[in-house]
Design brief:
single chain, Arc Repressor Mutant, subunit A, 4 helices, mainly alpha, three-stranded antiparallel sheet, 114 residues
């Protein structure tokens, strides 16, 4: 279902619903040219938006809703931070991804624990 685009680090808390997004992101290294702190921050923004929205969303919708508030240009914002971050949340079972339509939808707990 997902591509190999930034694996979670050893000891990632996985699918435990009591674990916060911050804990999941804390050890994550996107393995891109984007600063790790910036990538984590931008991935968190995208995940929070997806959770609040509750609908299936594609890249263009993420960019329209969130990229303007980022210090990164759109391509780097998506490819170096948000896309790999979303796939981290796919790996831990909180985001669903449809490869044929490249859509994402939040499927984890709806309440924010952060």
């Amino acid at each position: 279902m997902t591509e190999d685009i930034g694996r979670r680090g050893e000891g990632c808390p996985g699918t435990d619903p009591s674990v916060t997004d911050d804990v999941i992101l804390a050890e994550w290294d996107p393995q891109t040219s984007v600063n790790v702190h910036t990538a984590r921050e931008q991935a968190k923004r995208a995940v929070e938006w997806l959770r609040q929205d509750g609908r299936r969303r594609v890249r263009a919708e993420f960019i329209a809703a969130l990229a303007d508030e980022s210090p990164l240009e759109n391509g780097l914002w998506w490819g170096g931070a948000v896309h790999p971050g979303l796939h981290l949340f796919v790996e831990v079972g909180r985001v669903e991804y449809w490869s044929e339509s490249q859509e994402y939808r939040w499927i984890g707990e709806s309440e924010v624990h952060n």
